[in-house]
Amino acid sequence: MDREIPKLAKKIKLADVAEAVGVSAITVSRVLRKPELVSESVRLRVTEAVARLGYVPDPAARALASARTDVLGVLIPSVTNNVFSSVLRGIYNRVEGLPFNIQLGNTRYSVLEEERLLDVFLRQRPSGLIVSGIDQSARSKALLRQADCPIVQIMEIGDDPVDMMVGLSHRDAAGAAIRHLQARGYRRIAFLGARMDPRTRSRLVGYEQVMKEIGLLDERLIVTTPRASTVTLGCELLIELLSRTTEVDAVFCNNDDLAIGVLFECQRRRISVPDDFGICGFNDLEMMAVANPPLTSVRTNREEMGRRAIEMLIARIAGEPIDEPVVDLGFEIVARHSTAGLRPREARRRP
Amino acid sequence: MDREIPKLAKKIKLADVAEAVGVSAITVSRVLRKPELVSESVRLRVTEAVARLGYVPDPAARALASARTDVLGVLIPSVTNNVFSSVLRGIYNRVEGLPFNIQLGNTRYSVLEEERLLDVFLRQRPSGLIVSGIDQSARSKALLRQADCPIVQIMEIGDDPVDMMVGLSHRDAAGAAIRHLQARGYRRIAFLGARMDPRTRSRLVGYEQVMKEIGLLDERLIVTTPRASTVTLGCELLIELLSRTTEVDAVFCNNDDLAIGVLFECQRRRISVPDDFGICGFNDLEMMAVANPPLTSVRTNREEMGRRAIEMLIARIAGEPIDEPVVDLGFEIVARHSTAGLRPREARRRP
DNA sequence: TTGTAAGCGTTATCAT
DNA sequence: ATGATAACGCTTACAA
């Protein structure tokens, strides 16, 4: 690593600051971490010297000596997925200005990678940890339970938190979407699902429950794939659905990308939305409101989820008691024109 | 942090393994890092003991003793932006299986935050660093030049790499897009730009150069905003543009989100694409190919960019010489129906 | 309120 | 090929 730029002046350490001020190293350390334990005069002189010399603590030395870091670990299954981007935004926004650093791990929907990263992260003795989902492997759960830092599971909620949880019931959210479609007069309501991760499966369960309740469940209306969801896939799944049966008058898409794809494909096939066909997405991405027509979706509070997760962590780090270890952030059906209801005269798509 | 689960058995350290095998700690350390320096018999016994005891090195102790970590730092301005998600995917894919860990920093398009994170990251003595863009502040550049690890600037290319670069010329890419529109018969070509980060500005320069060259530059056709780009903003910018002048027959959007918004707004206004109005985006997101009509865009090799950046880092870490410190990944105009050309009869939009 | 001494777990250096 | 010893820079525990 030879660069033409001269090396930095030798790195300033605690001892250098201590010497400059004429106190011991531990006093400088205290000024930095627990200033209230140090007399004002000393504190001021130390603070001044720290600034003047440009001292900054070595995180590795700190971690080694204190068995603690200022890292908040965050494990998510995808960096590409909009849903997690939003959560991350909430996390980064909330942590700004706090003395913590986010360490992001990308599990890529792989159980093994999640276990590996959990291992890597925990070994660094983070101040807190955020993990996605509630369906960790047995090994992951064991690691989490042994961790000596607060942990928040996000995205979903359930009965058996490793420590804390903040999320929503995807089953209920999907169920509510189906009831919305039903209330608007749609009957033959299909389910399009991609990726089929635990949350998608929960939504499918919610769909099936409600469809069964209202006596409309038909397996042919359920089209799923393990492939990652994309707009293109939305088109393809609609085509697959219509090839199975033309007796469909609405579709609940497991997420908004699929819904946009379905919309484009409907436009191409001159299927009128919502007159002949209703479309409901999930997540309520920004673009849903300005599509043509605007698309109904299920709003989830993803930024809020990230924010709350951080707040729960820092509360626990500060030793505050947590009244609610499991926080349900709920959801909201954002009804737009795409599910305004079938055309009065005849509730059947044109071929 | 009181949990009901019993604490882990006391953490195994180097000395424990050494004792179990009957060698010294440093020998165990060597087996882990430079096995070729240790005799086979000892190596085998040590390896066995490491596995049996479940020993794993403490990263903080390692970092403190060796002044080096296995961290590859990555600084990006946004976790929400599709462009960076793709780059990240390339990075994570390429680094999989290698003995490095990605540490992600989110600068949120803030110079100050970039400087702060650079500071935080460099203090951890990473094995390598990837930073976004080539327009770092003077202070950031100074920090980078003093770093004693390899560094890759990604997204753009320029004359003065801090160390290495991999990206493309956004000016040329935008210029090529404009020439494409011109070749298809469009004349009154507008520019819609959001965020106005350095790359967006480069694209604007490319647009202006080519428009001037072909004698078509008209300031009224340039609509920009500092707001982050969204599909909604695409609609709004088109509305703003049309309120300034109806003498427009095509639009180059600074990115695909804007282009999708423009498309939806055109659909609403019954502006026929491409007959009355051409649309070209930038980045070639997956959805462009299946929009209605499919939208022309400029493909950039974002995953490849991430991959190459990692490869350049590990080559340098391995001490290999770099033949090309600045890698131009180029771009490609992906022509689709949205720029098929104006309707033969009359090259004017309907009101 | 401040300081002393003893690690924290690993690796660099120098011996053997 | 292997080992003894001294860092690495900080914090904990205890003392004064």
Explain this structure to me?
- Two copies of one chain form a homodimer.
- Chain A is of the alpha/beta class and 351 residues long.
- Chain A has three domains: 14-66, lambda repressor-like DNA-binding domains (434 Repressor (Amino-terminal Domain), Orthogonal Bundle); 71-169 and 302-330, Rossmann fold; 170-299 and 334-347, Response regulator (Rossmann fold, 3-Layer(aba) Sandwich), CATH 3.40.50.2300.
- The first copy, chain A, has twelve helices and twelve strands.
- Chain A has helices at residues 14-21, 25-33, 40-53, 59-66, 82-95, 111-123, 138-146, 170-183, 198-213, 231-244, 256-268, 302-317; strands at residues 71-76, 101-106, 128-132, 151-156, 164-168, 189-194, 222-225, 250-253, 278-280, 297-300, 326-328, 331-334.
- A six-stranded parallel sheet of chain A has the order 2-1-3-4-5-11, with helices on both faces. Chain A has a four-stranded parallel sheet with strand order 7-6-8-9, with helices on both faces. Chain A has a two-stranded antiparallel ribbon with strand order 10-12.
- The longest helix of chain A is centred in the middle third of the chain and has 16 residues, at 198-213.
- The N and C termini of chain A lie far apart (67 Å).
- Chains A and B meet through α4, α5, β2, α6 and α10 of A and α4, α5, β2, α6 and α10 of B.
- Chain A binds a DNA duplex (16 and 16 nucleotides) through α2 and α4.
